[in-house]
Structure formats: C-alpha cells, structure tokens
Specification:
Blueprint (H helix, E strand, L loop, with lengths): L1 E6 L6 H12 L4 E8 L2 H9 L13 E7 L2 H6 L37
Antiparallel strand pairs: 1-3, 2-3
C-alpha cells in the first residue's frame, strides 16, 4: 500500500523531516518512508523509492510518501496521521530567504555589538 501527498507551501527544517522519516520507517510494516521538501534532490530520492510526485509539486511543498505492508501499518505511521507530523511553518523563515542575512550569519565584524 502506497501513500503520497504534497502539502503546498508547508515548511519544516530538514533535520525535523529526517527524524519523522526515521520514525515512520521504524513502524512495523512500513517498508519505506520519505518526508521532505520537494527539492530536486528529494524528488530524485522519491523516484528512487518508486514513487511518483504529485502533479504541480514545487520546492516549496512538503512531500510525504509511505509504502506500507497494509492499511494498519500505514495508519500507525506518524506521516499518515497529521497530529504526529511535525508542526509545519507556512512560509520559509526570513533567514532562509535569498538576499537576507541575519546578524549571526553576517560574518566577523558585521554583527551587532
């Protein structure tokens, strides 16, 4: 049983998403799981797992893909139950936007004193 969805405009940091993927893969009966932003690299990983990305997906979308032995395993997956999926920010944080740098990333001598 396969489940693939995209959450348009949703965002979570990559470490959090890797942790959710690992939690999902640890569920008995889950054969594969990927929770990641729909970047070119992650779309390649999705394809390597045998999944097809939903039409119109962009790098600003969150991907959730699970392959499970049966519907019970899928239902136990943290990715299949939205309350257990990590809190998702609806926009990219300002420090990640092109052309914007916070003081802590400004380099020596440029930070606030």
């Amino acid at each position: 049983m396969r489940h693939v969805q995209a959450r348009p405009g949703a965002y979570a940091d990559s470490v959090t998403l890797m942790q959710v993927s690992a939690q999902a893969q640890a569920v008995p009966g889950v054969r594969a799981a990927l929770v990641a932003m729909a970047t070119e690299l992650n779309l390649g990983l999705l394809a390597d797992l045998g999944f097809t990305a939903p039409d119109g997906v962009t790098q600003n979308d969150l991907l959730i893909a699970v392959e499970a032995a049966d519907s019970d395993a899928l239902a136990r997956s943290p990715t299949a139950r939205s309350p257990r999926v990590p809190p998702i920010r609806r926009e990219v944080p300002p420090s990640s936007r092109p052309g914007r740098r916070s003081a802590r990333h400004a380099g020596p001598g440029l930070a606030s004193r």
